[in-house]
Amino acid sequence: MIRKLTSTLFIILCLALSMQAQNKKPGFSKEEFRAKQEAYLTGKAELTKEEATKFFPVYFELQDRKKAINDKAWQKARKGKDSDTTTEEEYEEIIDGIANARLEADKLDVEYLQRFKKILSSKKLFKLQRAEVKFHRDLLKIMHQPQKREEKKK
Questions:
Q1: Could you give the angle at the alpha carbon of 107 between the alpha carbons of 68 and 61, nearest 5°?
Q2: CA dist 113 to 44, 67, 69, 93, 128, Å?
Q3: Which of 13, 25, 34, 52 has its CA 20 to 30 A from that of 114?
């Protein structure tokens, strides 16, 4: 388990460093991101191959649905950037849209949790949720490393 985790983190770090060395903007394609996320979460939650095969299609379906909800909300929010032409009513619509998107995403989380419970034990779901947070934190740290180095050079 620790060996898998170490390997996964090492691969993510190597990819980030190689991208920096090539002067590319740090980041991953959707497929690369999902592959890394799946490997990381599988290791941290100690999922079997069979569990992972059943779980991740449903998990990524949830992610896609939540992204669609958030994209719509943030599309409206971009209108608010032009503060000279945006009216008070439009701002109200924007903030209500963002709040409603959060509620809708939370409802999806609850709905999909019931589906996840049919695939994984509660203990593994708990481990998976904790691993999800850690994955995003670790990824952000790696992706912000080049920016910190640039700031120190200035």
A1: 45
A2: 18, 17, 18, 30, 12
A3: 34
Helix axes 30-44, 2-21, angle to 10 degrees: 160
Question: Residue 25: how many CA atoms within 13 Å on its side-chain side?
Answer: 1
Please state the pTM of the whole predicted model.
0.71
Q: Is 144 helix (H, G, I), strand (E, B) or coil?
A: helix
Contact 52, 38 (CB under 8 A): yes
Contact 57, 64 (CB under 8 A): no
> pLDDT digit string (tens) for 136-149?
898 888 877 765 55
